[in-house]
Amino acid sequence: MEFCDCISYKGKENMQEMLLLLKRYGFAGAIVLVKDDIFDEKIFESMIPPREFKVFSGIEIFADSLSNLKKKVYKFRRRGDLLAVHGGNDRIDRMASREKEINLVRHTEGGHGIDHITARFAAENGVAMDFCLTALIYSRTSMPAILGKMRRNLMLMRKYKTPMILSTGGENKFDLRPPRQMTALSELFGMTREESLRSLKMPLEIVDKNRRYKEGRLIRDGVEIVR
Amino acid sequence: MKIPPSLREKKRYVIFDMLSDGKKIKERDLMDAIRSSGTSLIGSFGMSLCNMRMIELNGRRGILRCSRGELNKVRAVLTMVNNINDERVAIDIMGVSGGIKKATHKYFKDKKR
């Protein structure tokens, strides 16, 4: 089982601890998402991953307006293994789901959640939606609301076959959870076991696809140079 | 009054490991945190079905008893625990056993069988 988690970058020492813990929990790799304003390839060069554990670079775009989002997507589209957008705003979520360059929209449980049009656009453009468990774990007062939004998002994603990702979205070692516990928590908002296992493997599939695009092997969806 | 074993509720023993910053955590505080997060997640009714009881807490590791059918809910509840007495913690479930003797032998190696 090749599971992969998406975590946020908050300092070098913190990151080493997190990677070791993820390895102990049984993950095969991690995508380290760095904020767009501090992103630098040198961060990943200095990182020492544990043995038999893959670390991938990711960029998380924080945008306050649609024009800003477009600019940042254009700037970062060929850098890193994965391009994510911090959602939580209905307009940003909709815009992000229409961009083919974007791989992942995070924190979709923020705002009003996604609607059927966003889910459909995301499915057409291969943009994955993230179920971030830290949002659930650290939300004491609004837990029923977040669970409700996650359940509705899941229902729409199922209907339109939108790719989904299950991640902790942790910023330090206390936010990380083992895959089996993540699966148990995801059952509370209606995910089946098969769906949660697929969602845990999805980040690696996206990274693999991006790499094949970059190397020129994958021309477009369904067209690949084999030899 | 004892009831025959065949009529008793079936149990599972969850062995967990706590990740904390080093302070010693009391059994009572941990149980309070589990109850609080469990009640907010699955409600009092759900918690009553889980029938959780702390069997042992030895430093960071412990054994928690729960009912067999609600194991996944117990996992979710333990996942939600993040704070005990203003100290950040995370609970990692190491394994689940059907018997207390086997659980102790497998995960508490310093203890005799």
Automatic annotation (TrEMBL), chain A:
Name of the protein in question: Ribonuclease P protein component 3
Keyword Cytoplasm: yes
Annotated localization: Cytoplasm
Native organism taxonomy: Archaea, Methanobacteriati, Methanobacteriota, Candidatus Methanoliparia, Candidatus Methanoliparales
Gene assigned in the entry: rnp3
Subunit structure: Consists of a catalytic RNA component and at least 4-5 protein subunits.
GO cellular component, one term: ribonuclease P complex
Main location: cytoplasm
Any Pfam family hit: RNase_P_p30
Family under the similarity heading: Belongs to the eukaryotic/archaeal RNase P protein component 3 family.
Stated role: Part of ribonuclease P, a protein complex that generates mature tRNA molecules by cleaving their 5'-ends.
EC class name: hydrolase
Natural source organism: Candidatus Methanolliviera hydrocarbonicum
Keywords tagged on the record: Cytoplasm, Endonuclease, Hydrolase, Nuclease, tRNA processing
TrEMBL record, chain B:
Database matches in SUPFAM superfamilies: Rnp2-like (SSF160350)
Enzyme Commission (EC) number: 3.1.26.5
Single GO molecular function: ribonuclease P activity
UniProt keyword terms in alphabetical order: Cytoplasm, Endonuclease, Hydrolase, Nuclease, tRNA processing
Top class in the EC scheme: hydrolase
A single Gene Ontology CC term: ribonuclease P complex
Cellular compartment(s): Cytoplasm
Domain of life according to the entry: Archaea
One protein family per Pfam: RNase_P_Rpp14
Entry similarity comment: Belongs to the eukaryotic/archaeal RNase P protein component 2 family.
Protein name as catalogued: Ribonuclease P protein component 2
Gene name as annotated: rnp2
